[in-house]
TrEMBL record:
Record InterPro entries: DegT/StrS_aminotransferase (IPR000653), PyrdxlP-dep_Trfase (IPR015424), PyrdxlP-dep_Trfase_major (IPR015421), PyrdxlP-dep_Trfase_small (IPR015422)
GO biological process, one term: polysaccharide biosynthetic process
Pfam families assigned: DegT_DnrJ_EryC1 (PF01041)
Domain of life the protein comes from: Bacteria
Record has Transferase as a keyword: yes
One term of GO molecular function: transaminase activity
Family label: Belongs to the DegT/DnrJ/EryC1 family.
Record has Transferase as a keyword: yes
Key words of the record: Aminotransferase, Pyridoxal phosphate, Transferase
Name of the protein described by the UniProt record: DegT/DnrJ/EryC1/StrS aminotransferase
Length: 394
């Protein structure tokens, strides 16, 4: 048993949530996707400040659905070059390959863990990207204002994988509100949990309708009446009976359940408070990191809110990473690599993508990065363990 585990519990306000969940399940008649999911979508869209939110059964599903929807709409095509942050999660990159497009990894800065505008400019010199599916890593972000401007100028579709940065703000704008759409994860170790779950936010109504179609088999049952009428007229579907079993475009079954929708609403109520607590934890541990010449301090002065569920640790050398990895484990702190390192170095990437880019920042993060958890209910003892070790003691 770790004294400071990566995942401490399943929910924000664990006991209260489990009690409420038990009652909800006992009282519910049908638990497949329905009213609770819609209510969560509405409240999440309002929280994020976006027109629409579409709920999925995971963050990875949300990523897959987003790219599939853009292909169905003709905005992306086979062989299109899709840029992505080299330091990311497998299921950010995999759907690019699965859907027949070409992934192009962009380097991530060791100062912010993220793609910066200079790297985007560099990459565009020999890679005419159709879309950039950027990851906002571990609550941090690059200069998204400048990245958005470059994308606008060049007609590149900007998408944000915000699965790790729900609640972070850059100069007062929530991460996830810089591009056409953004994805979120509600897996247990994330900012709030529906056990498994994911979301896509966007202001684009046409994309919203296509996402609902992709989420459920390619049929139109979850679309608004007007949207149903439009698609039925386009394909000359006459009767309600036929419409129910007409499959208009490529889709999957990526539906959440009413449990996802119920839990999402419960958890969202606790989110703002937990973000502040996690931010306080990070700032405390950051003071220890700053005082330690073996570690690098990440740049965050452009972020007006820093919302992370983990504390990234960037050592100055791979040897120091080994040393701090051992010290943390010995001190009872559960650790892991920094996300998945440079994703180009993962076996699946080499198997399917013939050309990798040489990326110094992502390689540095791969060789020198670690992370431990950041929980809103850390006690003094848990924070002291982190402060002592990361401050260079023990
Ligand atoms: C950047 C990023 N994208 C996507 C995902 C996938 O989310 P999920 O685990 O809900 O499928 C994760 C999961 O940790 C992630 O970190």
């Amino acid at each position: 048993m770790y004294k400071v585990p990566l995942v401490k519990n399943t929910f924000l306000q664990e006991e209260e949530t489990k009690k409420a969940l038990s009652k909800f399940v006992l009282d519910a008649r049908i638990l497949s996707m329905g009213a609770e999911c819609c209510k969560f979508e509405e409240s999440f869209a309002a929280y994020q400040g976006r027109n629409r939110a579409v709920l999925f059964n995971s963050g990875g599903s949300a990523n897959l659905a987003l790219l599939q929807a853009l292909k169905n709409m003709g905005k992306l095509k086979d062989e299109d070059l899709i840029g992505f942050s080299a330091v990311t999660w497998s299921t950010n990159t995999m759907p690019i390959i699965q859907l027949g497009m070409v992934p192009v990894a962009l380097d991530c800065s060791r100062e912010t863990l993220n793609v910066e505008p200079e790297e985007l400019e560099r990459c565009l010199k020999d890679h005419p990207l159709k879309a950039l599916f950027i990851t906002n890593a571990l609550g941090f972000a690059g200069d998204l204002d400048a990245i958005r401007d470059i994308c606008r100028e060049r007609g590149i579709i900007l998408l944000e994988d915000n699965c790790e940065s729900l609640g972070s703000e850059l100069k007062g704008t929530k991460l996830g509100n810089f591009g056409l759409a953004s994805t979120f994860s509600f897996f247990v170790s994330h900012h709030m949990s529906t056990i498994e779950g994911g979301m896509i936010c966007t202001d684009d109504l046409e994309l919203t309708a296509m996402l609902k179609l992709v989420r459920a088999n390619g049929w139109d049952r979850n679309l608004e009446e007007e949207e149903k009428n439009t698609i039925r007229a386009k394909y000359r579907v006459q009767s309600e009976l036929d419409a129910k079993y007409t499959f208009y475009d490529l889709g999957y079954n990526l539906r959440p359940t009413e449990i996802t929708g119920f839990l999402g609403q419960q958890q969202l109520a606790h989110l703002p408070g937990s973000i502040l607590k996690r931010q306080d934890n990070y700032l405390r541990v950051e003071r220890a990191i700053k005082s330690n010449p073996d570690l690098l301090t990440l740049k965050r002065d452009h972020l007006t809110v820093l919302s992370n569920f983990a504390i990234p640790i960037l050592c100055k050398t791979p040897e120091l990473r080994g040393k701090y990895g051992e010290k943390l484990e010995r001190g009872g702190v559960e650790i892991r690599p920094l996300i998945a390192g440079n994703i180009q170095r993962q076996p699946f990437y080499g198997k399917y993508v013939p050309k990798s880019r040489e990326l110094k920042g992502a390689d540095f993060i791969h060789r020198c990065g670690l992370y431990c958890g950041n929980h809103p209910d850390y006690r003094q003892e848990e924070l002291s363990i982190l402060e002592d070790i990361l401050g260079g003691g023990k």
